[in-house]
Amino acid sequence: MAHIPVNHPLRPVYRTIAGLTGLYVLIFGIAGTVATWGDSLFARDDVWVLGLRTNLAFSISSIVYGGLILIGAIIGGRAGHLANLTIAVVFMVTGLLMMALLQTDANFLNFSMSTVIVSLIFGLVFLATGLYDKVGPAEAAGDEERYRRGAHRPAERARR
C-alpha cells in the first residue's frame, strides 16, 4: 500500500484529532447515560444530548467506543492505526444502517438525521487519522518516499 504514508510528520496532530473526537464521543456517552438512566435500553424517546438524539443503548456504546478511541490515541503506533481504521468502519456502517432505519420502528439506537450526519463525519475523521498515523520502520518510510518520487520507474527516467 504505497499510497498510505508511513511515519507521516504530522502523525501527532492526527492522533490528537482522533483523541479529541474520541473524547467528545466519550463525553456524549456519559452525558447520554445520565440523561437516559432509568429509561429502557432501546427507548425511542425524544432525548437530546450535545445536539444528538440518543437512548441508553447508544449512550453506553458511545462510552465503549469513546474509550477505545482514546486508548488507541494514547497508545498510538500500530494499535492506534488499526483502532482508528476499525472505528471508522463501525461509525460509517452504523451511520448508513441507522439512516436506512431512520423512519422505522427498527431505529433501535434512536438516531435522528443529525446523529447520522455526525456519525458519518466522525467515521471520515477516524478514517483520515487512521490512514495518516501508520507507523513503520524508517526504511519503509524511505522506500515509500522514493516510490512517490518515481524511483520505481527506472525505464522511464532512462528514456528522458
| Structural shape | elongated
Distance between the termini: 28 Å
Count all strands and give the number.
Answer: 2
Q: Helices and strands: which structural class?
A: mainly alpha
Share in β-strands: under 5%
Q: Count helical runs.
A: 6
Radius of gyration: 20 Å
Q: Give helix and strand order, one letter per element, not per position.
A: HEEHHHHH
The stretches of 5 or more residues where confidence is low (pLDDT under 50) are none
Q: What's the average pLDDT?
A: 85
Please list the strands of the largest sheet in the order they lie side by side.
1-2
Please give the largest β-sheet.
2 strands, antiparallel
- The residue fraction in helices comes out at 55-70%
Keywords for this structure?
two-stranded antiparallel ribbon; 160 residues; single chain; 2 strands; mainly alpha; 2% strand
Q: What is the compact description of this entry?
A:
The protein is an all-alpha fold and 160 residues long. The chain has helices spanning 11-36, 56-75, 77-100, 113-132, 138-148, 154-159; strands at 48-49, 52-53.
